[in-house]
Write a structure and sequence with these properties.
Length: 282
């Protein structure tokens, strides 16, 4: 049996780890991952890596995703998020391979009265969101064999996400400020990885939204995290933000429902299952 070779760029990140773990469980795939040892902003390095391994699928999980950091380091954010996506798209096109680009709900401005679909116009307001739109554009233009998967509030293995920050403060019994005017849907990296494997198996192309069903505010999300871990929910304090940050970036999984190839769980059920694994591991 010939195994399909898959290259995961950004393999040590939250989404990269989830994908590598999911791919390794499937005997049809032979997966290899890279991270900082391969500079995705260096087109020559990417070309050499592609020629060496000749993958049939390239998944780009590499990204500078801290929105506040992107605002202060615009050039770096564009270099990694945009040049990196361009270089990987070029390499995949050269090999006639598929490319899967991980994207975000931050590509939208948050002003729609309702959930954003794959057919809504992207109008990002943050530097991070703008880099991800530019990355999407390069991927679409440079390789027709592309998949762009947008998700929201992704949590999972590793630090640096909202969930881990809430748990850290909860353990220390510190006050947790969380916005009560920002709405989306928390989604686990593990569930997102499962969906991406389904897309690969079904040979799908185009743009897909993949967020857990339902919606909540950051405030409600933080309380659910603490409640699920048996911690003091009164530590969470609701706050509002008067900046230009999107108020609602809720995604509707319209393409998923149109093609009927997968069904995402409710965010509460998904979160409860993930927190259960954390408690069992401790």
């Amino acid at each position: 049996m010939t195994r399909e070779k898959v290259w995961v760029a950004g393999a040590s990140g939250r989404m990269g780890k989830a994908l590598v773990n999911a791919l390794k469980k499937n005997v049809e795939y032979k997966v290899f991952g890279t991270d900082r040892e391969v500079d995705i902003t260096d087109r020559q390095q990417i070309h050499q890596m592609a020629e060496m391994h000749r993958p049939s699928v390239i998944i780009n999980c590499a990204s500078v995703s801290d929105a506040a950091y992107c605002e202060k380091n615009e050039i770096e954010a564009y270099r990694v998020n945009v040049l990196g996506a361009r270089n990987l798209a070029m390499a995949s096109r050269h090999l006639n391979a598929r490319i899967i680009q991980l994207s975000t709900d931050d590509v939208f401005d948050g002003k729609k009265n309702g959930a954003f679909t794959e057919f809504d116009t992207t109008e990002p307001v943050s530097v991070y969101g703008k880099t991800k739109v530019a990355a999407e554009n390069f991927v679409r233009e440079l390789n027709p064999r592309h998949l762009i998967v947008r998700s929201s509030w992704v949590y999972g293995i590793g630090n640096g996400d909202f969930l881990s920050a809430v748990l850290e403060k909860g353990c220390k019994k510190e006050k947790i400020e969380a916005r009560c005017d920002y709405i989306s849907s928390p989604t686990s990296a593990n569930e997102l990885a499962k969906f991406i494997l389904v897309l690969m198996e079904q040979s799908e192309y185009g743009i897909y939204h993949a967020s857990a069903e339902g919606s909540c505010t950051r405030y409600e999300f933080a309380k659910a995290i603490l409640e699920g871990m048996g911690m003091d929910v009164s530590l969470v304090v609701p706050v509002q933000d008067g900046t230009n940050e999107p108020k609602s970036t809720l995604l509707k999984n319209m393409m998923m429902k149109m093609t009927d190839i997968y069904r995402m769980p409710m965010w509460q059920d998904e979160l409860a299952a993930y927190l259960k694994t954390l408690k069992e591991a401790n």
